[in-house]
């Protein structure tokens, strides 16, 4: 077969699968030029410990299929040359490297440079190292090649980083603009009102900074092009009219972020129209309206991120907790786990129970319902 492959390299696809355990044959097959119409058969080479420990073979294999690194022997998964070759074919092959290599600061930095998502696969010690995280986080720019789009970073980091302003700022800068608002909501509540963080997230830009100027850069998300033009080119007199903001807000709910403490933010009908389109705009309503149950329910109906910045008192309201569970499968808050009505309703939602089945659920112990239906 090796002689025949010397004349026609694609003949390997016709061989008996048992040859997949022959290291010489496998090397010869891998040395053939890759062919889109003749992919490698699913040979069971990875069941042979001897083949998995052969570095020459593994270099050929990971160059063709980066995910094959997961089958390499433990010593080879600690080999930088092999892991680099695998990452060249598959950037996330870093996750299959040995724990020691994923804890190597220099190599982990290189891996994160290959793909930001590799930050989630570094060792626990490095992921908890503030200096390492700050050093590794890149600044996102439009058009940069990314095999996998990263939508959140804070969820994968230790919880303490959510209250670290510098880390949160770098995290926001590392994400695409359209994911920054949701990421800011994952930071601790005391950072939600930070002016610089809100501006980086595209949630705040002073109205007075745009009046009378046409060269001010307005972030594309979350404002529409029409809203940006209206804010840039309208006069001060026009912006002082309630009707200006009313019309603009009905077209683009993100305009609510620009109203500051204006009267418009205290008008429930305007805020309601905004949160029905984008629930996260509830954050820019007045303090009184943010505690309005109708507005919270409308915002939570289509946006799970709203739940992140609700005060504990609002989260513990029955109607809000049940809506969050029904729409977004958000776990019930602890104070409500002793409320039989809420627990039974949530269990019935989870089980899609009929009225007869719901009455049967009411007879079961609360602890059993919470555990069985994963309500907490």
TrEMBL record:
A Pfam family that the UniProt record links to this protein: DUF4116
Chain ranges of the DUF4116 domain: 54-102, 268-315
InterPro entries: DUF4116
Protein name according to UniProt: DUF4116 domain-containing protein
Organism: Symbiodinium necroappetens
């Amino acid at each position: 077969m090796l002689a025949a492959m010397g004349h026609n390299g694609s003949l390997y696809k016709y061989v008996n699968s048992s040859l997949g355990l022959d290291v010489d044959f496998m090397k010869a097959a891998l040395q053939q030029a890759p062919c889109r119409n003749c992919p490698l058969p699913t040979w069971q080479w990875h069941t042979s410990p001897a083949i998995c420990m052969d570095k020459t073979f593994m270099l050929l294999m990971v160059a063709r299929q980066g995910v094959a690194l997961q089958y390499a022997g433990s010593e080879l998964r600690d080999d930088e040359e092999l892991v680099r070759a695998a990452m060249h074919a598959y950037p996330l092959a870093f996750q299959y490297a040995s724990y020691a290599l994923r804890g190597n600061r220099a190599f982990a930095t290189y891996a994160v440079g290959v793909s930001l998502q590799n930050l989630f696969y570094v060792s626990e010690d490095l992921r908890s190292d503030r200096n390492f995280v700050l050093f590794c986080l890149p600044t996102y720019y439009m058009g940069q090649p990314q095999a996998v789009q990263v939508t959140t970073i804070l969820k994968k980091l230790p919880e303490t980083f959510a209250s670290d302003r510098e880390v949160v700022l770098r995290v926001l800068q590392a994400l695409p603009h359209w994911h920054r608002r949701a990421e800011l909501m994952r930071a601790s509540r005391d950072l939600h009102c930070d002016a610089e963080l809100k501006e980086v997230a595209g949630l705040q830009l002073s109205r007075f900074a745009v009046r009378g100027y046409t060269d001010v850069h307005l972030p594309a998300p979350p404002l529409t092009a029409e809203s940006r033009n209206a804010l840039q080119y309208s006069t001060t007199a026009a912006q002082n009219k309630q009707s200006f903001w009313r019309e603009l807000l009905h077209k683009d709910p993100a305009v609510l972020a620009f109203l500051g403490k204006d009267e418009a933010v205290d008008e429930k009908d305007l805020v309601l129209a905004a949160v029905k389109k984008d629930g996260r705009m509830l954050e820019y309503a007045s303090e009184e309206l943010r505690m309005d149950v109708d507005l919270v329910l409308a915002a939570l109906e289509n946006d799970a991120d709203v739940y992140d910045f609700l005060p504990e008192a609002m989260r513990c309201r029955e109607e809000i907790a049940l809506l969050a569970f029904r729409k977004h499968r958000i776990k019930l808050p602890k104070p409500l786990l002793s409320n039989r009505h809420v627990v039974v309703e949530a269990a019935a939602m989870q089980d899609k129970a009929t009225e007869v089945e719901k009455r049967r659920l009411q007879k079961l112990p609360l602890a059993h319902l919470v555990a069985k239906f994963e309500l907490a």
